[in-house]
Each structure stands twice: as structure tokens, then as C-alpha cells.
Amino acid sequence: MAIHKAVLDDRRLKVRELSDIVGTSKSAVHRILSKNLDMRKLCVRWVPRLLTVAQKQCLEDVSVECLAKFHSKNETFLLRFITMDETWVHHFTPETKEQFKQWTEKGEAAPKKAKTVRSGGNVMPSFSWDARGKIFIHYLEKGKAINSEYCANLLQRLS
């Protein structure tokens, strides 16, 4: 079927574009997609980052190690456990998920998209917290990079 092939070639086609391709009405195209092919158009699901298999494995290894320490010293471990993270904060209004809608077949999950869009400017705060709450927030200076020296300096602030 021409409509099904066109959608599989480009899942972001609009009903109007499909109508032009196959030469039939928009309502007929929509009916074929939804009723005959049991397809629907879903928005992407925003995710913070798309991690590689190696990154996921590293996160799992650290989590298992922390869990083992928690089980052996659960009272003191949580009080001494400090978490740090950093993220880019962009000065812009992100694109809408609507712009990335795609046709999916029944049972297919919504597509994922990392929010990686260039903007007018950005800052990178590093957050540090423990079981009691926020310890501090530090903003990376312009032109600097997060490396071992930067992380060591942040850790020294905690002692």
C-alpha cells in the first residue's frame, strides 16, 4: 500500500503531504492510517540524554557499589553520601514536542529525542547535595571546562 510505504520511509509526513503523494483526500488518508493500518501520530518523549551502552553500564556499576555500601552501613552511609551533577542551562525556549510527531504502528513506543538545540547562550551550574539537602551550586566560568582539576576543586569546597 502506497500510504504505508510512504509513512515507513518518512514517519514525520503530515496527512496533507501524504494526501498529495497518493492523490486522495486528507480524510481518506487519515482513515486509512488510523483504521486500516492502526497507526497513530505520537509526540517524541524528551529525555535528558541518550546514553551509550558503556555509560549505562558505568552507572549501573556505581549504583551496585553504592547499594552494597548502603546495606553494610546504611545509617551513616546516607548522611555521608554526597551527589554532584552538572547540566547545561540554555537561554531559549525549547522546540515543542509537537514539531517531532511521528507515525507509529500499534504497540510501538513514542520516539525519544534528546534536547540538544543550540541557543543564544548558556550557563553550566554544578549542583551538590546530600541527605539533608542542597550543599552548594557552582557556576562554571566562561571558557573553562569540567575536568579532573575542576572536580577536585569542587570536592575541596566540601571538606
UniProtKB/TrEMBL annotation:
Pfam families registered for this protein in UniProt: Transposase_1
Signal peptide: none
UniProt-listed InterPro entries: RNaseH_sf, Transposase-MT_Hybrid, Transposase_1
Molecular function, one GO term: nucleic acid binding
Name of the protein in question: Mariner transposase
